[in-house]
Amino acid sequence: MNGPCPVVELRGVSKVYPGRVHALRGVDLTVEPGELLAIVGPSGSGKSTMLHMIGTLDRPSGGTVRIAGYDVAGLSDRELSALRARQLGFVFQQFHLAPGVSALDNVADGLLYTGTGRRARRERAAAALERVGLGHRLTHRPSQLSGGEQQRVAVARAVAGDPPLLLADEPTGNLDSASGTEVLAVLGELHAAGTTIAIITHDTEIAAWCPRQVRVRDGRIVAEMGSEMGAEMGAEVRAEAGVPIGEGGGREA
Amino acid sequence: MKRERQRGPAPARLAVADVLRVGASGLRARPTRVVLSALGIAIGIATMIAVIGISSSSREQLLRQLDRLGTNLLTVAPGQTMFGEEAKLPIGALAMVERIGPVRTAAATGGTDATVRRTRHIPEAVTGGIAVQATTTGLLATLEGAVVKGAWLNAATERRPAVVLGAESARRLGLARAGVQVWMGGRWFTVIGILGPMPLAPEIERSALVGFPAAEEFLGFDGHPTTIYERSADEAVEAVRAVLPRTVNPENPEEVTVSRPSDALAAKAAAAGAFTNLLLGLGAVALLVGGVGVANTMVISVLERRREIGLRRSLGATRGQVRVQFLSESLLLSALGGVVGSVFGALATTGYALARDWPPVVPPWAIGGAIGATLLIGTVAGIYPAMRAARLSPTVALTTT
User: How far is A242 from chain B (nearest CA, A)?
Assistant: First the structure.
């Protein structure tokens, strides 16, 4: 990387879908390395479109999107794919795990497009599963895992390649509250270990758990809470929210 | 900071093993569908391999027979006179033939009017279709035949009331051993031998053979040969063929017919592949239908797996890598059908050939062609679904529920 440039830099980003649907209307957002932020808003607020912009899954209609210093507008589809492979990790609401494939191979396949050899992929996958507290579930298939465990496998897949940014789209949306807490604890640990994480959610409770919150409504950022330097403060907020964090937090379930 | 056209990161190349593994994992997830759509290809390939294999085995059998029997045997028979009557070969014809330089061995047979019966009580009209023929002792060597029971005629027995039976005539008379007597031309003859099969001279199989002197003495034979068999060096066959009529009958060479018994076998071998075109066409149609089945399976697969495609795009797969994934899946699917079909086709060929006592032959070019055809079909059937999968936008694919 070229110096301490922001992981995400949105400048006046707008997105218009066919039929003159203005999903985003001039959004500015900067995410520094090491941050944990929530992009929160009701459905239809444009937060999913923001995920698509930050995740380089779609291109803006106006404005500039820079991910890890690369201007998305100047990159071809191939280069964007490579950018996603190396700089971004995604966690989705529906887990998106391959059925009938072991947790280890599900995670290892996440590294398929990074140019890593098969043996190295499996080693890093095992390490990533260890990090999310599933070191004892390597050979289990998704159907043999609880919802929370499945989402932790998906988190392991997203972080196996150590991407500078982890994007989580409603990571607890399909889970009961206990499993949701379990997954958030894992994200908290990853953040504590230095991973930059952006959580897209409609749940204000989860948002409150994050040190920085970006509220979105009608395609605009309407409020920012928490400072950009809020790493220490965030820890207090999380303690107040009663989320178990720290060593072994995710392993008790 | 670079201003103009920044160079982005280059996507990693997928190893061939990884491409195949991803393709195979897509198939493993839906085994029933894979088996059924590969079956279509397999049936087509098996049909074509079996058709080619069986006709090749049949041809191989004929060619081996031809090889074993040789193509250097010529037969000389009387034709017709200018007036349409049956001609006769001169009595000295065999001696003339033996004097032709390249001729190695020669022998003659002559038809008689006698019949052969087990006893005198059987009516004379019941001949069983067996011809009683006079023969020279060189016949067995010339036809390269074998005696399966007893002995062949020699200089002593050709003068005695002794008979050697062809394989078919022995069967018709119900005789399986030498030493018994048969009723021929109003007296008993002793069966001294029984011959084995004579593929190049089936008429000998249906004959009862006695020596020339004995036939003249006991059966009223006139001494005119009716067929002369001769073998020469392979390269001299055409030359010998050209001089035979003039040698045998210098006065009326046009009354002599020369033929090459192996020609019939050669023609059969050449014809063995001809009738298979229709069956090959049927196999091709089955293959085409199988290809349509593969394409159909792949289109459905792409529709069902939009979320997987979206996930792979988010993990960093390029459009090309998605395309390659679905193409390899389609290729593997049809290759599976091709391999299974080839195996079944080869098994069918082997079974059929062994049941007929033929050498089983599955030509390598047929297997190569089958594999080539399935790869072609897999590619063609996979192109459209793969393009669809690659063109899918990642956001649309991910929001599909």
Answer: 32
CATH number at residue A141: 3.40.50.300
Joined tokens for residue B235 = 């390269």
Per residue in B33-92, pLDDT (tens digit) is 899 989 989 999 999 899 889 888 888 888 888 887 778 888 888 887 777 777 888 888
Is residue B212 within 8 A of residue B153, CB to CB? The reply is no
Give contacts of A117 with chain B, Cβ < 8 Å.
Answer: 15
* Residue B267 CB coordination number (10 Å): 11
Contacts of B5 in chain A (CB under 8 A): 74
Q: Helical H runs in chain A?
A: 47-54, 77-87, 103-109, 118-131, 147-159, 177-192, 204-209, 231-241
- HSE, side-chain direction, 13 A CA sphere, residue A38: 28
State the ipTM, two decimals: 0.86
**Ordered per-residue pLDDT tens for chain A, 253 residues:** 445 689 999 999 999 998 888 999 999 999 999 999 999 999 889 898 999 999 999 999 999 999 999 999 989 999 999 999 999 999 999 999 988 899 999 999 999 999 899 999 999 999 999 999 999 999 999 999 999 999 999 999 999 999 999 999 999 988 998 999 999 999 999 999 889 999 999 998 899 999 999 999 999 999 888 754 444 444 444 444 444 444 333 333 3
Tokens of A62: 């106006």
CA distance A153 to chain B (A): 14
Name the residue in chain B with its Cα closest to that of A95.
B311
Nearest to B316 among A81, A98, A117 (CB): A81
Are residues B318 and A57, on separate chains, in Cβ contact within 8 Å?
Answer: no
Could you give the C-alpha distances from B326 to A100, B242, B378, B385, in angstroms and in order? 19, 68, 10, 7
Percent over 90 (pLDDT), chain B: 26
Chain B contact for A18, CB < 8 A?
A: no
Give the closest of A58, A75, A109 to B395, CB-based: A58
Q: Closest partner residue to A110 among B25, B313, B315, by Cβ? A: B315
Query: What gap in Å lies between CA A246 and CA A244, rounded to an integer?
Result: 7
On whether the CB atoms of residues B209 and B137 are closer than 8 A, the answer is no
Q: Which chain A residues are Cβ-neighbours of B314 within 8 angstroms?
A: 55, 57, 84, 88, 90
| C-alpha–C-alpha distance, residues B69 and B265, integer Å | 10
What domain count does chain A have? 1
To the nearest whole angstrom, how far is the Cα of A36 from the nearest Cα of chain B?
21
